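Issue 218. Parser rejects a valid record. Input:
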Amino acid sequence: MAEGFLTTHVLDTARGLPAKGVAITLYRIEGKERHEICRVVTNDDGRTDSHILPKEDFRTGTYELVFEAGAYLRATGQAGAEPLFLDEVPIRFGMSEDTHYHVPLLISPFAFSTYWGS
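Output the parser choked on:
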């Protein structure tokens, strides 16, 4: 059984708050195919209520988190004119070790960043 797992959180850097209500989809990438694993929504703390990919389901490989930032920005009145500069934010990353991967998203209406967190 693998020991690794995957978590995330979303911070709204424009408002200085956790981003509540952001829908996130996790995909496993195999060649040119993308397979949906799960869908989650951030809670009051901008985190998910459980691991996105729990230890028992963990496998090394290439994955993609797609954050529905545009819906969040619209809901919080930060969207601006259509089309939005940021709508869906995909982050493709590799997990090569059986360890904890934390892939957060920091967003504002005109920028985002991510990193391998702890």
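Fixed in the parser; the record now loads. The chain has one helix and ten strands.
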